[in-house]
Here is the input.
Amino acid sequence: MKSQEMRIMYAGYADKVEGKDNSWKVIPDSEAARKQALEDGYTAFSTTSFSYEPVDEKPEPIRYGSLFLDIDYKLDPEIAVNFTRDLVWGTLFGMYGVNPYSLKYWISGGKGCHVEIPAKIFGAEDGHPFLPRIYKEMVQFITRTCREQDCAKILDLQMYNMGKGRLLRCENIKRANGRYKVPVTYDELMKYDAKHLLAMADTPRLNFSVVADPPERSSAMEQFYSSALAFLNIRSRRCGARLGLDSLLDCRFIAHCWNNRQTLSETQWWAMVKILMGFGPEAKPIVHFFSQGYPNYSEKETEDKIRQCERQAKDVSCSYVKGLHDCGKNCNVGSPRYLWMRQQAITSRAASAFSLEEDGVYYGADKESSVAGQLICSPLKILGKLRTPESLEWSRLVEVKAPDGVEKKIIINMRDCVGRGDSVRALLSDNGVEFSYAPKAQSLFMEYLQANAPAGQLFLRFSKVGWQEDAYVLPDQIFGSPFDEEIYFESNMTSLHQVSGSLDEWKDQVGKFCRGNSLLVLLTSYALTGPLLRPCGFEGGGIHIYGSSSAGKSTAAHVAGSVCGGGGHKGFMRQWNSTHNAIENTAVLHDDNLLVLDEIGQASAETIAQIPYMLANGQGKARMRSDASARSVGNWLLNFLSNGELTINDKIQETGKYTVHVGQQVRVIDLPIDAGSGQDLYQNKHGYGDSARLSDDLGSSCQKYYGSPLRAFLTAFCGSNPSEKMQHVALICEKAQKFVDKNSPEGASGQVRRVCRKFALIASAGEFAIECGIFPYEKNDVWKAADQWFKIWLSQRESIGDLEIYKVLKRIQDHFAVESEQRYVPICFAKTDARIRKAGYSWDDRFGDKRYLMLSAVANEILRGINRKVILDELSKRGWIELKDDGTIRETKSIDGANYRGYIFIPRAWEEKS
Here is the structure.
């Protein structure tokens, strides 16, 4: 073993220091040297030490060091902390027999935890030239076998670099965020909840020392390390094949043997041994590793089986394996061994020919002979393959590093890789990738892109939030049933479904000020109805809040939006002042959710005539690609919230060029911010002297605390399984129906009942949120608010019937009220009256009641905007027009020997009704 004093390591800065040389410094690997480096201002050390400094002119040095795990989760560090506990207890101790008290633990002060596993535990204290790659094999296998869905995101594989390695922050060093990396004991890690542990990083623990147990050798971990090393050797001897230890689990039979090794039959175990030994003598450690946990395992018997395999050298067929365990998959190979051989054959040329280095992608590089190879492009890593849930839109997910050091993830559609791939290079160039102009560099790059995707890394590609089967997808979180594959959320727009602050903070800083203010109670509950539309079978639509300037419309929209997310310039709100295409893309991003559009006054009458109907209808325009093939049409199901000084109807008719359709008025509900009675947005100002200050503070709070209510609602609604979710669906639908039965007026038209159902869903969603502790309201607060505002809407409508019929009936009444004397000629003057704008004739029937013949040309104008049969049936039913003896409508009248066509109206019918 190389003596500790002869090794070297690197000291550096965990954070870039302005005005200093931030390059790494070589120091001896000793306690005294590290202490001096800390005094000199260095804040991080390399995770590995070296027998000599790694340089290109020399063979790889021997590398030494513990296995460090960098466990972080940017979106929610608490997940990283909980994962660390599960990993240490369930995997390292439970599966590999590692004494957890012999490990070291830190709360990183950033996004999670650091764990150090001493090399002595798995027999790596003598080091290895490719130690980081061996460690990466081990961590990739842990990632593959871990049941935590986001494991690949939580365990940072960038820790295991060759070259100089990776710097790791020293403990008690302050971060840019003001927190510290602090040591914790194993007992603390397991005792305290995640929030408490993360809070420990608020101050340094300078006088705190952790005394770990001396590391003890774990036979299972030793076999794990040996297996990773063995597969590293197998890979190097297979013409650069890109297989890893975790790729063994691509065979479902091998995966079955690993997952069920404690109950595996001897026949299945023996078949597994023969399959693994197909890789040759170097696979012996792998056989022992995969046999750990098998109840009849013994090292001697396993060695005997290995020797027997070497003598027989016979493949195990897939048909034989399926007789032992039906994996349910046809891989089109004769033997499981050929599964890896086929992948090796597909990728061997690309894997051996291409190499990804720190400064770029090279073709034909050979480190052993120091041949640099041909530079293809700046660093570009292929992370995996992507597809939609329908197995369409296959693509590659790549990670690039721009010249300024910014790392980005980009999706490359495989349809764009056909041919020269100019559009692919153009896209990557825009994102900072620099390409070589050497001969054949372009075609080599396309070969690299298509052939070098990791075989086992498959992502599900999502471009919008919302329901996917029994799971609800947000850009950073999944609720309900998880997917087998990792998901990747793509969008050409920034998602506003972000979260800031806890649910308790939102309730205290936003929610409590909604209490006693019925419109805010209504709108916060409305914000939760988007995810319910699809599972509960409701249609989408909108609510538009209108009123005078500075009445609180934007504040109401801010508050409603904060339920679902924020983080944008105006929180969760988007702008009406957008193109048709832009609003379509925005709607897709808000599928099964809430879309908030601010200030209708910024949009044209033409836009308002089209967009609300399109949003409620749930589908964008059909368009073609440049090759004349059809583009996929954007579709969605959402509820939207809008605001402005005018109603939707008034805005549409602003220029006089567009008319309002009744369907628009049913899909989009206009509500006056003053409740139609001049009241303020706030009936309860919660101690504030004036409304303006309360609005300012609410708006400010919505920029700080947002998104948590929606996530809590989805967690509660989805429950622990699909069955529980369906119970919640039934409960919400039942409550909604009770609301409709109680509040829908008797004799109400289908239009009124449709709107009543919308308010019913708001009431049900809000009451469910109250029961789950999401909203700080009293029971029935949302029900009362929905009841109140439905009645306000109904009073503005002035009719419980179909609005098209009501409008025509009103037009008839207004027509006769104004024109009966001016434009209707008494029948006795039919021959002598010469008035120009004649609408018809009038007379008294035998009972002295007035009758009017409205001529057909006038009737066509008065009865417009509705199906003629529908309105005539309504007029007949109401007794407004004269019928023949057989019950049909009388459409002609003989006057002085001439027949006139039209309809005979009886004003007494509506005058008596009124």
User: Anything to note?
Assistant: The longest helix spans residues 722-743. The two ends are 106 Å apart (CA to CA).
